[in-house]
Amino acid sequence: MSVKKDYDDIPGTFIFDADRSREGYQLNQFCISMRWQKNRDEFNADEEAYLDRYPMTQEQRHAVLNRDWNGMLALGGNIYYTSKLAANDGINFQQLAGIMTGMGNEAYREMMLNGGRSPEGNRYQYEWDQHGEE
Amino acid sequence: MARITAGVGCSHVPAIGVAMDQGLTRQPYWAPCFAGFQESRKWMKRANPDVIFLVYNDHCTAFDATCIPTFALGCAPEFQPADEGWGPRPVPVVKNHQRLASHIAQSLILDEFDITILNEMEVDHGLTVPLSVMFGEHGPDDEWPALVVPLAINVVQFPPPTGNRCFHLGRAIRRAIDTYPEDLDVVIFGTGGMSHQLQYKRAGLINQKFDRDFLDRLTTDPIGLSQMPHIDYLREAGSEGVEMVMWHVMRGALDREVTEVHRHYHVPASNTAVGHIILENTSIQGQAI
Ligand SMILES: [Fe+2]
Known about the structure:
The structure holds 2 protein chains of 2 kinds.
Chain A: H1 18-23, H2 25-33, H3 37-45, H4 47-51, H5 58-65, H6 69-74, H7 79-88, H8 93-100, H9 105-113, H10 125-130
Chain B: E1 3-10, H1 14-21, H2 31-35, H3 38-47, E2 51-56, E3 71-74, E4 78-81, E5 94-95, H4 98-110, E6 116-118, E7 122-123, H5 125-135, E8 147-153, H6 163-178, E9 185-191, H7 208-220, H8 222-226, H9 230-237, H10 245-252, E10 258-269, E11 272-281
Parallel strand pairs in B: 1-9, 2-8, 2-9, 3-6, 4-7
Antiparallel strand pairs in B: 1-11, 3-8, 4-5, 10-11
The complex binds fe (ii) ion.
C-alpha cells in the first residue's frame, strides 16, 4: 500500500520525498562524492570501478553510466545531487534543464528569456494528458 | 542591546555567483538582473549591520543524505566557501559572531525550537550569493563587511518545514536577538526562490503573478501568506520554488509594521525568477509581529 500524495498529479515533476530519498540513497551519495576533485579524478579514470563503491541498483548504475538524467530522477535521484555529476561533465543547471525537458539548450534558453514556462496548462497531469504530452 | 533593524529577501541562484565571479555582470543577459541590486548595495552601506542573520538552504553540498536536519544553526567560528563541483567561489571566508550564535542556539531550544547545532560547515551558493549581490564583488583575500550567523533549512527533501513554522521560528529568533546584551545592529536575510523548477520535463516553470503577489503580501498580509500550504508552492511556483518558505523566517523576525524600501524582480537568471525586497522596521522600539 502506498500513501496517496497531493503532489502526485503535478506533471513533469518528481517531488523528492522520504520514499524517493530512500530509493535513491546510494545514487545520491555517489553523486555528492563528485564534489571533491580527488573523487572526480578517480571516477573519470575508471567509472565502473568507482561506482563499485556505491551499492546502487543495476538500473541506477546504468542510468549513471549512460548519463540518463531523467532516469536518475525517476530512480530516486535529486537534481541537487545529479547536478554534481553534471558539473563533473561540464554541464551547468541550465544546460541540464535543456536535456531533461528534451528541448535542447537553445530552445530552452530562449523560453527562459521569454519569461519561462507558463503555469497555464502545466499545473495538473490531466492538462498534459489532454495535449498528448507524457 | 542587539536589535533587528531590517529584513532582506533575496534569491540565491548559483549562476548569479558565476556571473559575478567571471565578470559577466555588464553583459546584456545579466545587466538587468544586477541593475536592481545597485540601490541595495547603497542601502547596505547606510544600514551598516554588525551582523547578518542569514537564512538559506544547503543544496546537497555540506549535507549529504546521511543526515537531514530541518533547522541547523551555524555555530562554527568561520565557514569556508564550498566546492559544489566547479571549484569553490573566490569570495571571502564567512566569519561568525560565535557568542551571538551560541546565545541564539540556547534561546531557541529553550523557546521550544529544537534546532541542530553545527560546529563545522562549509557554505554553498545559497549563503554566498546573497552576500555577493548585497555587498558587491569581494575577493578571497577581502573580508565581508559584516559577521554572519547562518541558519540552514532543509528545503531539498520534502517536506520542508511549513511556512507557519518558519514564521514562528522568525519570531523566536527575534526574541533571542532582542535579549542579547551587546549593542549590535542585525539585518536578517531570507533567501531562495522565487518561482523555479530545475528538474525533469516541467523545468523552467516561472509564475510571475505568484511571485509578485508573494512580494506584495510580505507587507500587506504576512501572517496570511505564511499559511500557504506546500502544494501551492510546488504546483504554482515549481518544485524548487518551495524554497520561499525561508522568507517567512525573515518576516517573522521583523515588526508588525514594516516599510518596503526597495524591490527588484527579474526573469530570468538561468532557470529562475530573481526576487528581492528590503523591509525596514519603522520605529526603534517597534512591536513584534
Ligand atoms: Fe536554494
